[in-house]
Amino acid sequence: MSDPIEISNADSATLAENIFRRIQAAIVGGEIAPGSKISEPELARTYGISRGPLREAIHRLEGQRLLVRVPHVGARVVSLNRAELIELYEIRESLEGMACRLAAERMTQVQIDELRHVLDTHERDAAFRAGVGYYQQEGDFDFHYKIIQGSGNRTLTQMLCGDLYQLVRMYRIHFSATPNRPRQAFAEHHRILDAIADRDGELAELLMRRHIAASKRNVERHYQDAAHNNSLRGES
């Protein structure tokens, strides 16, 4: 995990924000594995902080659904099962499709140009060029985030860029390294952007829904392959 940080001159609010961001990044990036038990003493030692700011960070991570409380066990990193993941992708397919339609109607030309620049950045990423993953930065460097922001719908933005965002990112990153998926996703992103630039909201929504549906099928194949491999190991 990350090296301890020097915090002697940090105030409580800054310290809590710092540790929150670092643990969040470790969970989303897979450094702290799904299902892992969260040990407050261990994290306090690892990051060199007191328990107060750590507990505040843990509480915020629970609010983002990255940590869950298990009776008689304590906090654990979320680990969605197949059915829960499919439900999450179904929600994304519907809501992000809507966001894409609204973005095609409402994004300014400057915002569209910025979105095209985001894809240019993705194409230059070393992991993407090597075919081992898709660009994983968040916020303004995230194609989906930019479209949702461009929808101009504050309630939709809060749902997708607030409550669910880091949980969705966690699983997007987890499944992004599937062979051939990075290139496919990039091509799908370009088609979505072209529809937005053409102000074709109906097509933009359709393409976004198809894009997320393809990602959902990727998740389903992952679970099917895992079940098949487990079955083979059981027979050997």
Instruction: Report on the biggest sheet.
Output: 2 strands, antiparallel
Could you state the order of secondary-structure elements as H and E? HHHEEHHHHHHHH
The helix content, as a percent range, equals 55-70%
Morphology call: globular
What class, by secondary structure content?
Answer: mainly alpha
Order of the strands making up the biggest sheet: 1-2
- The strand count comes to 2
Q: What is the overall number of helices?
A: 11
Unreliable spans are 1-10
Assembly classification: single chain
Q: What is the percentage of strand-forming residues?
A: under 5%
Mean pLDDT score: 87
Return Rg in Å.
Answer: 19 Å
End-to-end separation in angstroms reads 36 Å
Show the helix and strand layout.
Elements: H1 12-28, H2 40-47, H3 51-63, E1 67-70, E2 74-77, H4 82-106, H5 109-124, H6 126-129, H7 143-150, H8 154-163, H9 165-175, H10 181-197, H11 201-235
Short description:
The chain has 236 residues and is mostly helical.
Supply the key terms.
disordered N terminus; 236 residues; globular; 69% helix; mainly alpha; 11 helices; single chain
What does this entry look like structurally?
With 236 residues, this protein is mainly alpha-helical. The chain contains eleven helices and two strands, in the order αααββαααααααα. Strand 1 and strand 2 form a beta hairpin. The chain is globular, with a radius of gyration of 19 Å.
